[in-house]
Amino acid sequence: QVQLVESGGGLVQAGGSLRLSCAASGSIFGGQIIAWYRQPPGKQRELVAAFTSGGSTHYADSVKGRFIISRDNAKNTVYLEMNNLKAEDTAVYYCNFIPVHSWGQGTQVTVSS
């Protein structure tokens, strides 16, 4: 099973930017759908952005126009560029497949207002 490791989180002021990385232990582009999820404090985990089976992208309404999901096939890495961050973006961010496999540790993003 491919292992996914998230990194790149941190503390940022509102309006700032961060880029998260999801490094895979093997190829993740063999027809699998990969996505970024997040779990805000005290709330359920939610889908943030994903590559669809056709290779296009999907975003939650709350991040549309601010977040960009991208990938580097050669590095088996998926990125989430987050711009114009808001306090409500504070969460632990995870990458995983659709349907999900086991969850990794995620990376904490904290946006101060």
Task: Explain this structure.
The chain is mainly β and 113 residues long. It has strands spanning 4-7, 10-13, 18-24, 33-39, 46-51, 57-59, 67-72, 77-82, 91-98, 107-112. The strands form two sheets. Strands 2-10-9-4-5-6 form a six-stranded mixed sheet, with no helix packed on it. The protein has a four-stranded antiparallel sheet with strand order 1-3-8-7, with no helix packed on it. The termini are far apart. The model has no long low-confidence stretch (mean pLDDT 93).
Distance between the termini: 39 Å
Mean pLDDT: 93
Radius of gyration: 13 Å
Secondary structure category: mainly beta
Instruction: Specify the oligomeric state.
Output: single chain
**Shape field:** globular
Helix content: under 10%
Beta-strand percent range: over 45%
Number of strands: 10
Largest sheet data: 6 strands, mixed
Strand order of the largest sheet: 2-10-9-4-5-6
The run of helices and strands is: EEEEEEEEEE
Topology:
Blueprint: E1 4-7, E2 10-13, E3 18-24, E4 33-39, E5 46-51, E6 57-59, E7 67-72, E8 77-82, E9 91-98, E10 107-112
Parallel strand pairs: 2-10
Antiparallel strand pairs: 1-3, 3-8, 4-5, 4-9, 5-6, 7-8, 9-10
Short description:
The chain has no helices and ten strands.
Features:
4-stranded antiparallel β-sheet; 6-stranded mixed β-sheet; 10 strands; single chain; globular
